[in-house]
Amino acid sequence: MPSGHVGRTMPNAYSRARSAHDDSNSIRLQKVLAQAGFGSRRKCEDMITEGRVEVDGELVTELGTRVDPHKQQVRVDGSRVHINPNHVTLALNKPRKVLSAMDDPKGRYTLRDIVGDKYDRIFHMGRLDYDSEGLILMTNDGELSQHVMHPKYEVEKTYVATLEGKISGTVCRRLVTTGVQLDDGWIKLDHCTILDSSRDRTLVRVVLHSGKNRIVRRIFGSIGFPVKRLIRTQIGPIKLGDLKAGSYRVLSPVEVRSLSKEVGL
C-alpha cells in the first residue's frame, strides 16, 4: 500500500459471500486485474494477497473474491482500475478542416464522421481548432473525461509547429523562462525545442499545460511568428505515434491506467 493510504480489511464473511456468489456478471478479481493490464494472473494474485487491492473501499486479500465490473469499483495502491467493459477510450488523429465536435449544424466534417456510431455516448476530451491536426482523446467514461478536462490537472500537451520566419534559440528560451503576455494574462511554455529551420520557416516542438483556446497559435503570433501548421503529438502519457490522419485506435488498458494516474484517478 502507498504511504498514507488507509484501507479497511474486508470481513471474512463478506469475502466468502462474494466468492460463493454465482452472479453471471461477476468474475474473479485476479482476472479483472489481468485484463486491466496488471500482468499475469499469478502476479495479480500476489497483489491481492499483499493487501494492495480494494473493492468498493474495502481491502481484499482472499483470492476467491468475485466482482461485478459494471457495478463495483476496484483500486490498486489507491488508484482506480478501469474494469467497466462498456467504457472505451480512443486516440484519434484529427486532420485539418475537421471540427472538434460530434455534430455541426453547418454540415462540416466532425469527429463523429470519423468514429461513427459504434461507441455509445462517446465524447472528445478537449479540442483542436479547425485548422490544427493531431491527437484528440475520446471516451465514454464520464469520470475520466471530467478529470482530463479539469483545469486542476492541466495535462501536459506536446505540439509540433511550423512557424513563419526564423526563430532563434534565445527567443525559444525566453518563451520558457519569461513567457508572453496575452489578452487573458501571462503564459509560459514548459519546453521549446527547434527541430529544423531555414531562412523563412522554423519547425519547433513545444510542451505546455494550458488548454486555452488556440494557445500555441496565440503565443507565437504575439511575437511575430505566425503558425502555418500545428500538430498535437502527445497528451499526457498518450502519444500520437504513427496513427494515420482521419483514423483512431482504442487505448490499451495500460495506457488508460497511465492516463488515469496522470489525472489523479
UniProtKB/TrEMBL annotation:
Sorted UniProt keywords: Isomerase, RNA-binding
Domain RNA-binding S4: 27-87
Pfam families: PseudoU_synth_2, S4
Any GO molecular function: rRNA pseudouridine synthase activity
Family matches, as CDD domains: PseudoU_synth_RsuA_like, S4
Enzyme Commission numbers on file: 5.4.99.-
DNA damage is among the record's keywords: no
Family per record: Belongs to the pseudouridine synthase RsuA family.
Protein name: Pseudouridine synthase
Source species: Bifidobacterium myosotis
